[in-house]
User: Fold Purine nucleoside phosphorylase LACC1 from Hippolais icterina.
Amino acid sequence: MLEAVLIDLFSLPANLQNNIQGLLHNTLETIEKYSAIHAPCVYVMCCQRQGSERKGEQEFLLAALRGFQSLRRRLELVCAQTTAAALYTIKQRLDEKDLSIIKVILPTLRKDLMKVYIDYLFTAVYQFEFEDLQVISDSESLQISEHQHEEQILPSQDVALIQSEIQMYLESLPSLKGELTILRSSLIPADIFLHGFTTRTGGISYIPTLSSCNLFSSSKRRDPQVVVKENLRRLANAAGFNPEAFHRVKVDHANAVCIMGKTEPDNYDGIVTDQKGVTLAAPGADCIPVLFADPVRRACGAAHSGWKGTLLGVSMATVNAMVSEYGCNVKDILVVLGPSVGPCCYKLPHESAKEFHRIDPKCVRLFDSASPYIDIRRATRILLERGGILPENIQDDSITDQNQNITFCTACHPDKFYSHFRDGTNFGTQIGFISIKD
Assistant:
């Protein structure tokens, strides 16, 4: 069922401005007629002009909006200086109401352009259909038509201009939920490695479960890639790394490891390098982002360790890759466990809990229950130590630092961290990152 209508009047030719009131009135009349029972939200998008010209046009538009009783409470005029700004404002309104099925009514010549904006600012969560607004410049008769014009591919320079406009607008937005915060470990030598773990503050993501420094986009979430890219740019500026040399694991909840410079697997939960200036990252929103550093051989790595990856030994697989590829001595490798769900909150079905019980009974609490509490950090430490990592070279603040410097429980701290366990499917993501300094 149609949930919202967007009427694009952003760039009507100057000789049509006098007809804009009648055009809008006719369009709204059609919407009201066919949406009498379930009136959709309606957003009218127009250009915010300067001075008296701006005031005059908006008065015309506001006059056209009056009188539509069934739409009145669900109708909004959105004026902005750029299409990106107007469309992003409308996206915020849609997200506030959890709307995702939208009809766009616009001049035929704007359709291909608008589709590019939508591709960048929205994800597959949203469904769009387009209806042509047939504008006839030599007549007072302006009508909506179902006529479909042949789609064209915009020239690459036009697409680049749209990308630039969107980027500039997003860069201008204020940070939300406080300043960008990076947690750092004292175990990893700062003169050799640049590293940290992000929290949820200091980005521009505004959807509550993603707010504000969400660092992952998918087809199932409402944060588009351009927003995540802007959050990453802000993180890179604060941390001091190059966002163009940033490599994140391709999560598969398994134990494959990517060696930077070699053929990249389709999916992998660990990644290692000895190249300077290349930043490696692993996500976490309950799963453990694990960082690895060898100050002797000057190599590093990152791994994503959820309960499945923990059981499959992804952390030791990452260590073994550093040993085999870069000649690291396992006793020189430092390992830091980042923010992740703690044994205070995390439960798994009994069958899965059995696997952790086999590693060490202390990894499971209330073992005889249907959903025992699981300590994936303890299991990770045990497997690392069995693989030769020295206990003193593993940082897990939940056992070593009562002040909880890094290894916070993500589910227990909604002000600091995202949590899939706590927030459900539309959850945000933080990361652990590391690179070798030039």
Summary: The CA atoms of residues 307 and 376 lie 6 Å apart. The chain has twelve helices and 19 strands. The two ends are 55 Å apart (CA to CA). The first strand starts at residue 4 and ends at 8.
